[in-house]
Amino acid sequence: MTDQNRPDSPLGGLKINLGTATETPLGGLSIGTADPAATSPLAGSPVTEATDGAPTETKVLIIGSGPAGLTAAIYAARANLEPVVIAGSAPGGQLMLTSEIENYPGFPEGIEGQDLMNRFREQAERFGTRFFDLDVDRVDLSGRPFHVWAQDTEFAGQSVILATGASALWLNIESEQRLRGRGVSACATCDGFFFRDREIAVVGGGDSAMEEANYLTRFASKVHLLHRREGFRASKIMIDRAYGNPKIEVHTNTEVAEVLGDDKVEGLRLRDARTGEERSIPMEGLFIAIGHRPNTEVFRDWLPTDEKGYLVPHHHTASRIHGVFIAGDVADHRYRQAVTAAGDGARAAIDAERWLEAEGIAEHATQTAW
Ligand code: NAP
Question: Is 206 in the pocket of ligand 1 (CB under 6 A)?
């Protein structure tokens, strides 16, 4: 579908109300919402319910249902490990927030993020993965089997793959949330294409904001880079590149007070951070590039994180705890791509399978299954 076909939605008709996204502890399951069924085409897929109060047990328990978690599930299922995925109440991960994906190999025509995640899930189900669309509240990684509690359901896994991803940070102003998917986006590589010849803004002062602003000049007629302070967090080369780009206008000491528009972005009310003075300017899109937050809260008592809260793998995908593996954006703030997360999921499943074998828990090698 072309841009012109979507006059009301520069984000490809994606109209998702994502109420509490940033509050969700499982951002691989990063989509928190008041009504998951309304927002997730994956809702309605079978949810396996525990019936007798006993923990649901498995050899491989996967937490998270983005590309990393679902690829791990496909690999583990094909290795006859009968994995269980705790997928979150709004499954599918960050791709569920995007419109068309044009850089996932194998889809030369592009594919909608939701369609891609549906296919991942169907593939995992085909080989016997069980799904629970629940949010994890608590884990106990003190010993095998590892225990996980999700909305009063207890799970036990001989191994665990943590694939809870990261969530984009938002300004958290009402108008931004209301217009998400209607001109407000947190992903330039996903949505930039839909802003061809439009005047748009990027918020942030780090490398992501510089990178996104530069990237968006491929499409937009003009990009306003809005940063709340005088000084930038971004590296000098990225700042120079932004200032050197004739299509980028940099506004320091500038905050977004409100995104204007009823059904789509039509303007911004900006505030001078020093004087408090406000002005409104017309604008057709707004990209938020103020960082990501890894969804690691429930693991932090058990595993080391870096200064930004990302999990730190110990050896390949293995964590410091034997039997606990890590995959995808939950440990990656460098690449953050669906395809790299999927690759990580495959690596984690292979590592888990070999570990289970070495521990005598899984039958011997199913290497042909890979
Ligand atoms: P970041 O470095 O944490 O920068 C976030 C920026 O957003 C900061 O300038 C911050 O402002 C601003 N911000 C945060 N909350 C805000 C709010 N509520 N309202 C307005 N502005 C807000 O995040 P990042 O840019 O995503 O980078 C994350 C990491 O990835 C960094 O280590 C970065 O170097 C790396 N990265 C590298 C590349 C590259 O090398 N090509 C590209 C992207 C990212 P303040 O400065 O005022 O706090």
Answer: yes
